[in-house]
């Protein structure tokens, strides 16, 4: 096989960027060092070479928070929009994601089979919610307003351990690689309160037990302090958002090794769309405004305490392709640029249990690489990383 050497650049090691070359053969990295040779050379002089980036919380089937637009969207159109959403994500260097609700097995298989171009993905299929919870789309008028259920997207609103056992097994049957639950209310749901905990201990314990039996993990949308605690003490792998994280919650996350996926962009995307004139209800806007400042404080608290953090954006609530803004927000609220890059590479790979294959530039790893013109860490700090991406490789194949 042809050996491709990326030469003359700086290689991001996970903690810093150092001069070096990367050699790729087929779909694998075979060498990293100085003065390496290959059959074909890619001149990386003046560039930083990053591992393929991760986003641990996206929604490819969603294209914004405009309710009126969604109600006037034909049923099948989001499947076609997802193709553009996935391409936009790849273009900013993200080659691996968790789709946290929406993409079904068909979407994931289309990428796996090479029918469409997109990041490799783990899918949650749908989010498990209690009645009146964050994935219950019942409106006060009696209508249901979320995308309709279909053969690839089962109903996941359930109450009590036995109903939840059935739901988890159904999601596994439908191809879920990860189980997504809502252990609190949220911003985008019509009738839930982000400060309220959802599901009781015996319910989440059942969910985790069934997920573990299937060999997969549980991620929990959790904003309220109590909702975070219930999820953590019953064994979820990651807390998504973590807006009202308490000191006790931090202690329990450290004790259990629970990850935080902060999605600092999420409420800001809602507010930005409203400012641009999108039809977003006052109820949702009020909730988004109420969580923004607390969200940043909780992220700072978790980071300072040493909680494990992986990058995720909630893209789909807002535009796809702006994902790297999350890294800049992380640096604004306490991370160094190198820590933010670690959160979207090696840390994210560990969260998704892909660290043996991805997340760093090392021999034997899959050849996902991103070439960034200039100093990637400086771009993270300045908010210009997306604009500096010059090439993206997935499995050794150039995508741009």
From TrEMBL:
Origin: domain of life: Bacteria
Alphabetized UniProt keyword annotations: Hydrolase
SUPFAM superfamilies: Composite domain of metallo-dependent hydrolases (SSF51338), Metallo-dependent hydrolases (SSF51556)
InterPro entries to which the protein is assigned, alphabetical: Amidohydro-rel, Metal-dep_hydrolase_composite, Metal_Hydrolase, Metallo-dep_Hydrolase, OTAase-like
Pfam families from the UniProt entry: Amidohydro_1 (PF01979)
Presence of the UniProt keyword rRNA processing in the record: no
Endoplasmic reticulum recorded as keyword: no
Domain Amidohydrolase-related: 48-396
Record GO terms (molecular function): hydrolase activity
PANTHER family for the chain: ALPHA-D-RIBOSE 1-METHYLPHOSPHONATE 5-TRIPHOSPHATE DIPHOSPHATASE
UniProt protein name: Hydrolase
Organism: Lentzea pudingi
């Amino acid at each position: 096989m042809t050996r491709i050497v990326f030469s003359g650049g700086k290689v991001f090691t996970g903690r810093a960027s150092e001069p070096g070359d990367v050699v790729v053969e087929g779909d694998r990295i075979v060498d990293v060092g100085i003065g390496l040779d290959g059959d074909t050379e890619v001149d990386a002089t003046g560039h930083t070479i990053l591992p393929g980036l991760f986003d641990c919380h996206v929604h490819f089937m969603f294209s914004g928070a405009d309710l009126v637009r969604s109600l006037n969207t034909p049923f099948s159109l989001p499947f076609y929009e997802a193709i553009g959403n996935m391409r936009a994500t790849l273009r900013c260097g993200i080659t691996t994601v968790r789709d946290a609700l929406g993409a079904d097995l068909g979407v994931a298989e289309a990428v796996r089979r090479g029918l469409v171009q997109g990041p490799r993905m783990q899918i949650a299929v749908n989010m498990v919610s209690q009645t009146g919870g964050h994935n219950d789309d019942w409106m006060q008028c009696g209508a249901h307003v979320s995308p309709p259920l279909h053969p690839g997207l089962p109903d996941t609103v359930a109450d009590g351990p036995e109903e939840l056992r059935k739901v988890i097994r159904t999601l596994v049957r439908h191809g879920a690689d990860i189980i997504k639950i809502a252990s609190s209310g949220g911003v985008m749901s019509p009738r839930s309160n982000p400060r309220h905990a959802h599901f009781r201990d015996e319910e989440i314990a059942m969910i985790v037990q069934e997920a573990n039996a299937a060999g997969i993990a549980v991620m929990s949308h959790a904003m309220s302090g109590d909702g975070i605690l219930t999820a953590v003490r019953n064994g979820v792998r990651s807390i998504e958002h973590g807006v009202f994280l308490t000191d006790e919650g931090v202690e329990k996350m450290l004790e259990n090794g629970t990850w935080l996926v902060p999605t600092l962009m999420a409420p800001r995307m809602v507010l930005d769309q409203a400012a641009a004139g999108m039809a977003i209800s006052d109820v949702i806007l009020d909730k988004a405004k109420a969580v923004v400042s607390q969200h940043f404080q909780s992220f700072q608290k978790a980071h300072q305490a040493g909680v494990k953090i992986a990058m995720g954006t909630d893209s789909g609530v807002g535009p796809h392709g702006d994902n790297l803004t999350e890294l800049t927000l992380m640096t604004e609220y306490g991370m160094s640029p190198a820590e933010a890059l670690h959160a979207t590479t090696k840390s994210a790979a560990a969260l998704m249990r892909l660290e043996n294959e991805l997340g760093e530039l090392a021999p034997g790893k899959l050849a996902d690489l991103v070439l960034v013109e200039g100093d990637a860490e400086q771009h993270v700090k300045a908010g210009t990383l997306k604009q500096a991406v010059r090439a993206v490789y997935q499995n050794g194949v150039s995508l741009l």
